Amino acid sequence: MGRLTSEDVPSDIDSLFDGWLDLAPREAVLVLFSVENTAQAIRLAARAEREGHTITPVAAGSPDTSYMGRVNEALDRLERAGSRVTLVTLEHDLIEGLDELILACAGRTCPVSVSRVTGCRPEPFDGWALPSRGIVAKTNRDLARRLNALPEVDLETAGGARLRVSRPPAGDGWRSSPDDVLPPGGVFAVDPVLDGVFVADGAITVNRPIAFDVRLAASPATLVVKDSRVVDLDCPDPRVAKLLSRALAFGDCGVAGSVEVNANHGAGPFVPDNGLINRRRPGFLLSLGHRPRIGTPRHSAGLHIDLASAFGRVLTDDWVFDTRMSTR
């Protein structure tokens, strides 16, 4: 990329630096970016350079994973120098091998923190607004507190979903989504007891490359769930139906390992590409497959599928939380 001296720093880059990246003075910044986001990576690196940070840019072309060697070489060099490192990703869609790379970072002797910016098309925050960390934290904290006071809640959508979520006595309860992936998420429960029908009319996200439009509005996937296990599936899109049928037949994907409530109105519309940004739309997210428990590394090479609904309501005996009406 050459020397990064651009003065053209848009407000979204400033929001990322000022509101979300917690960089120590002269901390090293490794910018990993999809080739579609080269111009945005230059602007991001230019801001970091002006702040006095050492910059290492690495391009990732999908499905090529050769970038992993360049990232590890850079981390080896920074590790020898005793540097603290923040890995910032600008992801147009899925960067193959990224979960494995982040897992490897956790085992290094030098501290490596990660901040992922998903759905960069064409700008890092194109089509959505980045709320402040404080607003996100307060909204999620308040919602998690109210949900944790209840033994069970119902999730309902206009698309036909009606899913009862019961918290087992030994469960971790509702927690705020980790804030190292932007746009920020909502609150989620790991290993809840789930019963009912879930209708995914938003999008499907898979931690594997997908060559088709992942949006589901025109062909929703309907899953019947009993005791957290998917017992029936219907989807008019043959590609999605085939993918889900195969996944449900093998491994852990037959079990819904977590459910998430999102109300981030700044996340923009569902996009056609396979990427984490579709997990952030207002509504509900049902996760199939490997989902580590609280306190363990969250990234895994195991198959993981997320199914998103478009909007929805959390129903209890005393109050209703509508993801359309969140004040976030």
Structural class: alpha+beta
* Quaternary structure: single chain
The H-and-E topology, N to C, reads as HEHEHEHEHEEEEEEEEEHEEEEE
Described by strand count, sense and barrel closure, the largest sheet is:
7 strands, antiparallel
Which regions have little confidence, pLDDT < 50, spanning 5+ residues?
Answer: 1-10, 292-301
Could you estimate the helical fraction of the residues in percent? 10-25%
Count of helical regions: 6
**What portion of residues belong to β-strands?**
25-35%
How far apart are the first and last residues' alpha carbons, in Å? 37 Å
Mean pLDDT: 83
> What gross morphology would you assign?
globular
E-strand count: 18
Largest sheet: spatial strand order:
13-12-10-6-5-17-18
